[in-house]
Design a protein that fits this description.
The complex is a heteropentamer of chains A (291), B (364), C (249), D (316) and E (241).
Chain A (H helix, E strand, L loop, with lengths): L1 H28 L6 H19 L3 H25 L11 H21 L15 E3 L4 E3 H23 L1 H11 L1 H6 L4 H23 L9 H16 L4 H22 L3 H15 L14
Antiparallel strand pairs in A: 1-2
Helix pairs in contact in A: 1-5, 1-8, 1-9, 1-10, 2-3, 2-4, 2-8, 2-9, 3-8, 5-6, 9-10, 10-11
Chain C lengths: L2 E10 L2 E11 L4 E5 L6 H8 L7 E6 L2 E2 L5 H7 L1 E3 L12 H12 L15 H10 L15 H14 L4 E5 L7 H17 L3 E5 L3 H7 L2 E6 L2 E6 L1 H6 L1 H8 L7
Parallel strand pairs in C: 3-8, 3-9, 6-7, 7-8
Antiparallel strand pairs in C: 1-2, 1-4, 4-5, 9-10
Chain D lengths: L6 H12 L1 H4 L2 H26 L8 H17 L4 H23 L4 H21 L1 H4 L5 E2 L10 H23 L2 H11 L1 H5 L5 H27 L1 E2 L6 H14 L6 H19 L3 H15 L3 H9 L3 H6 L5
Antiparallel strand pairs in D: 1-2
Helix pairs in contact in D: 3-8, 3-11, 3-12, 3-13, 4-5, 4-6, 4-11, 5-11, 8-11, 9-11, 12-13, 13-14, 13-15
The chains are: A mainly alpha (291), B alpha/beta (364), C alpha/beta (249), D mainly alpha (316), E alpha/beta (241).
Bound molecules: adenosine-5'-triphosphate (2 copies) and magnesium ion (2 copies).
The site of one magnesium ion has 3 residues of chain C, from helix 1.
Chain lengths: 291, 364, 249, 316, 241
């Protein structure tokens, strides 16, 4: 039972790290970024490339994570600066087609660069085994995931709520034009948010990589989980996606244990149930998307 | 491109997304077979040509592409696909259009049982055979109480049914744990396996899922607890290559082909040619399956003297052929040929960080 | 009394926006609701029209209790409203804006086989002429000048054929010229069609020009009711709302 | 403003399509049949997205329900074609009404995500309910009456159904109900205070859209002689949504163009390269950046009447 | 040299042209008003100056430099403050946060201007004392008048030299209107230059140095407030019935 709870948390925290970027981007840019899964995938692949060169060293792994985030930041900057930016004042939904196009392109590029076969990354040195927690032994890397989730959540929360930067980001999601008339370079804010969201996806991908096969198609699987997390938690809400991720983690693990292969149905029933109980998600607010 | 007077083979394989790791290597087998045949002067003086379409792992897409290949490109036979659902959908098109569909990879028994029709041929080891083969392995490892695990879909269900019915006295499946197809998190399953009092685990989780499962189970020490017999071709070189030292040592696993374990000179020659085509000594396991399929079809065309489907069916029924993996014969009743697979325990080899099947035995 | 608001309160997370309000509006009367910013005027309109619910108290219209009704049902019993901030269908033409109102009024919004084209052309044009917008029929509402949009809102509200009209600051943001003509227009329509009017306004010229009676809301409470003169001279109203110099014009 | 403006053009277009089997090879007959099916599917979605302003990510659910219902009825229960077609439309409509009843309580993205959740529920049921649906292998081998079992006769059958659907949807969109949907899309609060029961109208739109999606799904099931769970998967909903957006959601006929364009692109590129994703992706990027009003917007750009396409009322 | 010079400005919304060559000039310390009926282009002129609408013809000169079509945030950093007619408070942010977002850390313009006062929370709270009590309340739930004060205060946080003030009295209670008037007078005394758009003629005439009368996107009359007060013809023709 204890192990299962820990498992749920580890899964949930990993999902949170990936999904929080999605909710951040949606919260400010109002773009539903289908390419978020693609960013996740690139993160994992970049880490793979780095580790392949450096061998299984600590520096290789942790440095690779940083490289993965930087690469994604750069890609996201290019995408935002030269393409996405031109769509903000166009028909809103067309951004969906845009991000869908990105998914297609990245899908093929990954196949071209890294080949069609699956790859695997070892746990970083010192994280491959289990740690004694008194009650039982538990995989060290998963403990690390469980701890890194709240760290990222709290840091993001501090940035958003307690810094001027965060206030500007929150204002940008409310009224972009007015903010610009108040002397804030909103274009740069949008760029920064998109880049930050993509870097978080890359971080999530890199952190998840040692526990997964790095292979084409991993983008399509993760994005739907991210959607569930973000919707259950409440669109655009940081803590919402935190708790949404934990709920999905619990539902997946305990769903499998209790309902076996019917877990597939359970997760969606749960999502429907949450939305019926709280239409705007756990911590979401009513969307004023008209006017 | 080539003249209208070629023999055209329509190939349907997943080449994008999650299916690419099967489809793209499988295409190499087609290329190799066609190159060989064309260099030897073709079939009855005609060159072979193939047209490949991505199934995108979607049955409806595959059906439409199959129809397009037949009506637009005018292909004479079809080869494919990987996943059973997709192959079944294509089989329906083959039936309507009266074009042979040769399935070298899909293991569904429905193809040649409940949904059987005249134009359907299958050269993979289907779940009936695979289950029987695995039962043999179980005997070898003295499996005792078995718990079975696999993705929740027809392949696993059929497979375990066959395994169960072929098990020796004193062995039985005591627990069965299905997980949803495409699962990324195996922690619940790992706990269930660790909690079960079985002696041996019979596994069918394949591809990237197997990688994830192993990576997640290693820190828990799952693989030290029980014996493991794993189907679904996770014994392939590709798989051990990607997992390297993380691969659970001692696990019994299988593979369509092994570049380091030639069965014969003919097999070695095939592997050498493939190595040249792929530009790597350590070749993939899928090419041999599609290679054989093309060879069968080419021979049937040669014998029947044309591309008329009905004549081809007649030629294929009962056809025997030497293949890199030894002699194969198509049963005239079931339209199937028994393909074996390499089975053996995975061992660390000195001087390499990749595990190998040792000893590898070709069984069917 | 056509409209009867009794002991109505409403709070927003602890803040009491309406505090035990009692308000009666007589049939055929033009009743102004004034008060400082944040007094609760719009909130009261929202309660009457069903956009938000009251915490306590009752609202009845022609002796029918409104509290349990949904907004569209309240429209059906004869209450139409305009909004403080202009609220039209910006991408549709003025004509289409009014047409939709007619469709709704005649409960044709569920009919999938009743062709909309050309429907109610005559009624719509009459109404547009009435509010002085005959020339703007085919202009998208979003491109109309502010004042015209307010007039369009009036036309839309009238299309519902209401007995009671709730107008939230009908002349806010209008130029002097437009304010003057709007006053005329509203007065003519209300009297001509025998409607009852309840409106809010910060322009005292408008208030004292057309209101038969005035109620003053302050901190969610009605602090004075009466004819224009009485209210204008009420010291409390002067203190919290009008100030010493009551209005510029 | 005149709704009749495009009728001649539409009839002419249908007439041209009807000529395909006469002038074109078998392949083009097949291709057109599939485009007609997806065009009908996209048209049905546009009721929701373009007219009612409700973004649905789960429209494939009704497509799949209609498809499964039809093949199961004709094959397992041997019901005659016309009756099973009618029944599958009815079943999808009922399913849409039930699911819609819950979904229309939400707006915007939440509505979108709830529809997504329901469609994934339908998908997982299609996979798990093996005795009826054939499970993950799909329902294969549906029987077809001889009358439509040949590709050309099936083509005319599909064209007939498509035309009927097109005309019915056109009538619905230009009806007073159509105006009400547009009003809700433009400004829900205002529509409410005109006396409209917004939820009911949205539910009605959802049901109608589901019914026509079911009809399109039934056609696909018959055409493929089988139905597969993939048809309910969210990517299928995503694809049809892209068709609508690509074609232009503020125009009645836009989704048809979008469906044709995307379907042809996907098939054609798959024929020329294994790297179809990258080619299609780049083309989509180009379209989005060059023609942000969709293909219909691009076309109507040539024909000055842009104001109509903005109101979304009467453009063709 | 004038502080702001608008020369022959043309602005369109999509295909519909709203301004047809508006020319306006503002000197340091001056308060000028734009008046006219609804829809004549007062707000559009301001939006054109601010860079929120890109002019299709004409020039906006700020301290002699051509700034037409430049990004609004650069104009703001250069000393132009904008107060829109619809207020546009950041509803989810508290009053203090609304102010903080608009803070201009590198208000270089202030150094070389003759504005004595450098605005910060304290000084705006002194100007609008009721905001001080509301500093932790969310902007979205303020009443209309409070929001109007916050909008002005927010704009001041950028330490502008010129304020574009669009209909500050709309929707305000009479008492607040007169306080607003005092507030604007204070700003003017503090050395700010102001462009005011207003319907309330009394308000305009009492405050302005000069007045521009607009009609259909063009300036039809300009002169001192005094002159306009006496020019009943112009008033009749463009302002009243
Ligand atoms: N949804 C809400 N949540 C919290 N407070 C609210 C809400 N709606 C209104 N209020 C508060 O209720 C009070 C009354 O607001 P209301 O809009 O009714 O004022 P009003 O009299 O119409 O003012 P004005 O003349 O400025 O329009 C205000 O203090 C406002 O902040
Ligand atoms: N977003 C817009 N889209 C299209 N046209 C617009 C838009 N905003 C304003 N207009 C048009 O531009 C013209 C000028 O409008 P503007 O808002 O500048 O006038 P104004 O003088 O400020 O009026 P008001 O006193 O009502 O605020 C008007 O005809 C108006 O209809
Ligand atoms: Mg109000
Ligand atoms: Mg204005």
């Amino acid at each position: 039972m204890f192990i299962q709870l820990m498992n749920s948390l580890a899964l949930g925290m990993n999902l949170f790290i990936i999904a929080v970027g999605l909710t951040l981007i949606f919260g400010v840019l109002r773009v539903i970024n289908f390419a978020h899964g693609s960013f996740f995938m690139i993160g994992a692949y970049v880490l793979y490339s780095v580790v392949k060169r450096t061998g299984d060293t600590a520096l290789g792994f942790w440095g690779g994570i940083v490289v993965a985030m930087l690469v994604l930041g750069f890609i996201a900057w290019l995408v935002e600066r030269f393409l996405l930016r031109r769509l903000y004042d166009k028909e809103h939904l067309l951004q969906l087609v845009f991000t869908f196009a990105l998914v297609l392109i990245v899908g093929d590029l990954v196949k071209i660069i890294w080949g069609p076969l699956q790859h695997s990354i070892s746990y970083p040195p010192g994280f491959g085994g289990a740690t004694d927690l008194g009650i039982s032994r538990y995989p060290t890397y998963m403990l690390f995931l469980i701890l890194s989730g709240p760290v990222i959540a709290v840091s993001l929360w501090l940035i958003l709520e307690k810094t001027r930067w965060g206030r500007i980001i929150r204002a940008a999601r409310l009224d972009r034009q007015m903010l610009s008339a108040l002397g804030v370079n909103v274009k740069a804010v949008y760029s920064a948010v998109f880049v930050a969201g993509a870097m978080l996806a890359g971080l999530g991908g890199a952190l998840a990589a040692p526990r997964l096969a790095v292979e084409p198609g991993m983008d399509a699987l993760i994005i739907i989980d991210c959607f569930i997390v973000v919707i259950v938690g409440g669109l655009g809400s940081l803590w919402g996606s935190f708790f949404g991720a934990i709920i999905l983690g619990v539902a997946t693990i305990f769903g499998t244990l209790i309902f076996g292969e019917w877990e597939i149905v359970i997760v969606y029933i749960l999502m429907v149930a949450v939305l019926l109980w709280r239409p705007w998600g756990l911590l979401g607010r009513i969307e004023e998307d008209r006017h | 491109s080539m003249s209208a007077d070629t023999i055209k083979i329509g190939v349907l394989l997943p080449t994008s997304g999650g299916g690419a790791s099967y489809g793209i290597p499988a295409e190499n087998g087609i290329k190799l077979a066609i190159n060989e045949i064309n260099q030897a002067g073709g079939v009855n003086g005609k060159m072979l040509e193939y047209f490949i379409r991505d199934t995108k792992l979607k049955p409806a897409v595959a059906s439409a592409a199959a129809r397009e290949l037949i009506t637009k490109e005018g292909v004479h036979v079809l080869v494919g696909a990987v996943s059973s659902g997709v192959t079944l959908a294509m089989s329906e098109v083959a039936k309507q259009e009266k074009i042979i569909l040769f399935a070298p990879i899909s293991k569904s028994i429905a193809l040649t049982e409940s949904k059987f029709h005249k134009y359907m041929f299958q050269s993979s080891a289907n779940t009936n055979i695979e289950g029987r083969v695995m039962a043999g392995v179980m005997k070898k490892v003295e499996a005792g109480k078995i718990c079975a695990t696999g993705y929740d879909y027809a392949y696993s269900h059929d497979f375990f049914a066959s395994l169960e019915s072929n098990l020796e006295e004193g062995m039985a499946i005591v627990d069965t744990f299905y997980v949803k197809l495409g699962t990324k998190d195996y922690n619940a399953l790992i706990s269930q396996l660790m909690g079960s009092d079985c002696d041996t685990v019979a596994g069918l989780i394949w591809g990237g899922g197997f990688v994830s499962m192993v990576k997640q189970a290693n820190p828990f020490g799952l693989f030290d607890q029980k014996k493991f017999v794993w189907g679904a071709e996770v014994g392939s070189h590709e798989m051990s290559n990607s997992l390297k030292g993380d691969y659970p040592e001692g696990m019994w696993a299988n593979s369509y082909d092994l570049w380091y374990s030639p069965l014969s000179d003919a097999h070695q020659a095939f592997l050498d040619d493939l190595a040249e085509l792929e530009g790597q000594k350590e070749t993939n396991m899928y090419p041999v399956t599609t290679y054989n399929a093309v060879k069968f079809l080419a021979k049937a065309i040669e014998i029947s003297g044309g591309t008329d489907s009905d004549a081809l069916v007649t030629a294929l029924e009962g056809m025997a052929m030497e293949t890199p993996l030894g002699p194969m014969t198509i049963d005239p009743e079931t339209h199937r040929t028994e393909t074996g697979e390499f089975w053996g325990p995975m061992k660390k080899i000195e001087g390499s960080d990749v595990l190998r099947m040792s000893p590898a035995e070709y069984v069917y | 009394m056509i409209l009867n608001v009794e002991n109505t309160s409403r709070s927003f997370s602890g803040f009491l926006a309406l505090d035990n309000v009692n308000l009666q509006v007589a049939e055929g009367e033009m009743h102004a609701l004034i008060g400082p910013n944040g007094a609760g005027k719009t909130t009261l309109f929202n309660v009457i029209s069903g956009l938000i619910s009251a915490d306590t108290g009752t609202v009845s219209f022609k002796d029918r209790e409104l509290s349990r009704m949904k907004p569209h049902q309240i429209v059906e019993v004869g209450i139409a409203r305009s909004f403080q901030r202009v609220n039209v269908f910006p991408r549709n033409t003025a004509f289409e804006n009014v047409q939709v109102a007619f469709i709704a009024r005649n409960r044709e919004h569920f009919k999938i086989f009743a062709a909309a084209y050309g429907k109610y052309t005559q009624e719509i044009m009459e109404l547009l002429i009435l509010v002085g917008m005959a020339d703007d029929a085919s202009t998208p509402a979003g491109e109309l000048a502010h004042g015209k949009q307010k007039q369009l809102e009036l036309a839309v509200a009238l299309a519902a054929n209401p007995a009671l009209l709730l107008l939230d600051e009908p002349t806010a943001g209008m130029s002097i010229a437009e304010t003057m003509s709007s006053i005329e227009l509203i007065r003519d329509i209300v009297k001509g069609r025998n409607l009852t009017l309840l409106f809010t306004e910060h322009d005292m010229t408008v208030v004292f020009e057309i209101a038969d009676r005035v109620s003053v809301l302050h901190h969610g409470q009605i602090i004075a009711t009466g004819d224009g003169e009485t209210v204008r001279n009420d010291p409390e109203v002067r203190r919290v709302y009008l100030g010493t110099e009551e209005s510029e014009s | 403003m005149r709704p009749r403006g495009g009728v001649q053009w539409t009839l002419f277009g249908l007439f041209l399509v009807a000529l395909v089997p006469v002038v074109g090879e078998r392949y083009y007959v097949d291709l057109t049949t599939q485009i007609l099916i997806y065009a009908l599917f996209a048209l049905s979605l546009n009721i929701l997205v373009g007219y009612c302003g409700n973004l649905s990510f789960g429209h494939a659910a009704f497509f799949a329900i209609g498809g499964y219902a039809c093949v199961i009825l004709t094959t397992t229960y041997e019901v005659t074609l016309i009756i099973s077609l009618g029944l599958s439309v009815l079943i999808s409509a009922v399913a849409a009404a039930a699911i819609g009843y819950v979904c229309v309580r939400l707006a915007a993205m939440h509505f979108a995500m709830l529809t997504l959740a329901f469609s994934m529920l339908v998908w997982s049921i299609a996979i798990k309910w093996t005795p009826v649906t054939g499970g993950d292998d799909g329902f294969v081998g549906a029987t077809l009456p001889d009358l439509i079992s040949n590709p050309v006769s099936f083509f005319y059958f599909a064209l007939l159904i498509f035309s009927t659907g097109l005309i019915l949807l056109r009538v619905i969109c230009t009806s007073t109900f159509g105006r009400a949907m547009i009003a809700i899309r433009e400004n829900e609060t205002r529509a409410t205070f005109m006396g409209m029961d917004v939820r009911k109208i949205r539910l009605q739109a959802f049901t109608i859209a589901g019914a026509f999606a079911g009809l399109a799904g039934a056609l696909l099931g018959l055409y493929n002689r089988g139905m597969y769970p993939e048809s309910a998967f969210w990517t299928e909903s995503g694809q049809v949504l892209i068709m609508v957006l690509l074609g232009g959601m503020h125009s009645f006929i836009g989704p048809v163009l979008g469906a044709a364009a995307l379907y042809i692109l996907e098939t054609m590129i798959n024929q020329y390269t294994e790297y179809w994703q990258i080619v299609l992706g780049v083309i989509l990027l180009g379209v989005v950046l060059i023609a942000p009003d969709g293909l219909a917007g691009l076309l109507s750009g040539f024909r000055k009447r842009k104001d109509d396409s903005v109101t979304g009322v009467d453009s063709e | 040299m004038s502080l702001l010079e608008v020369d022959n400005l043309h602005v369109a919304y999509g295909k519909s042209q709203a301004l047809f060559g508006v020319s306006v000039e503002v000197s340091r310390g001056e308060l000028i008003s734009l008046v006219g009926r609804n829809g004549v282009g007062k707000s559009t002129t301001m939006r054109g100056i601010m860079g929120l609408n890109v002019p299709n013809r004409g020039v906006v000169r700020w301290k002699g430099e051509d700034i037409s079509g430049r990004d609004p945030h650069l104009n703001c950093r250069d000393g132009i403050g904008y107060i829109p007619e619809d207020r546009r408070i950041f509803s989810d942010l508290s009053v203090w946060e609304n102010l903080d977002v608009a803070r201009n850390y590198n208000a270089t313009s202030t150094a070389d201007s003759n504005i004595a006062k450098r605005w910060n929370e304290e000084s705006v709270f002194t100007l609008f004392p009721e905001l001080a009590d509301l500093r932790n309340r969310k902007g979205g739930v303020l009443s209309g008048g409070q929001q109007q004060m916050l909008t002005i205060a927010r704009s001041l946080m950028g330490n502008p030299e010129l304020l574009l003030l669009d209909e500050p009295s709309e929707g305000l209670a009479p008492l607040v209107v007169s306080r607003m008037r005092e507030g604007i007078e204070q700003l003017k005394e503090a050395g700010l230059s102001i462009v005011l758009a207003e319907q309330n003629l009394g308000f305009v005439l009492a405050l302005s140095d000069r007045v521009y009368v607009l009609e259909k996107g063009q300036v039809k009359y300009s002169g001192s407030a005094e002159d306009l007060k006496n020019n009943i013809d112009i008033q009749k023709q463009y302002l009243t019935v």
